[in-house]
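Quick sanity check, Pseudouridine synthase:
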Amino acid sequence: MRKEQTGKNQVLRFTVPPDVQDAEKNVRSFLREDHGISRSLLVELKHVKGIRLNGASTYLDHSLQAGDVIELHLPEEESENIVPEPMPLQIVFEDEDILIVNKPSNLCVHPTLLHPDGTLANGVIHHWRLQGISRKFRAVNRLDKDTSGLVLIAKSQFSHQQLATVQRQNGITRYYEALVHGQVKEEGGTIDAPIMRKADSLMERVVHESGQWARTHYTVLERYNGFTHVRIKLDTGRTHQIRVHMSHIGHPLLGDDLYGGERTLISRQALHSRILSFPHPRHKEELSFTTPLPDDMSCLIRQ
């Protein structure tokens, strides 16, 4: 498969291999079964005549022969009323399929009622407008407003669907680093405790037997006077999972006053999304990205 951009549209191009005649494939089965294209995307492209076989518009039940070329013309998208806003972005990587940004703390990923603008989404939409393209903002992983680190953003419905499938199969590896209160005695461990929203709160989460399954692995990197530096790997992605789980074992994050932490040393939860690994949505090559600890966390460690 190849992917290119012609004008404002992205084009996915697939060449049918020699063995397809033995399998008696049509356009639909070839794209769905061999390349994981979602049913919803195929339906959308069918309505706009965005599926082409050897240069001509075609139907999903058209039979295929070896050497046939299928093109999916992905139309330009509106940005869902997200107003473009100029802002400095720490871009770690970008190609025609994905964008990876190192998000600072005190920045929401998406607009909310309390933060309708000035979010990462506003800045990314502006960044794309400067390139002359229009895309929806599709964050694959999401970070809390005061959590810093790597955010993976898909640049098309195809890329988002491919990465979402990988995510459901635990194919996206995320490592965080945190500074937590107290001296963690064990060198590492696993917290397997279900999480649910607290009954009287719109934001706060709690460990509860009727909650959603959640698993967090942690490893001690270093112990300091009054706090511990830990590396954390997630098997699930529940809201506030790291913050809730570390508080649950008696070691809330520094600065996380919602879950028992204190802000005497740092003014936000000391949590950073440091490493992100995943297969590329198009060519499936394994990619891995790392970003250093932000100044407020690294300064505490140096002191």
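Posting the structure with no commentary besides this: The mean pLDDT is 91.
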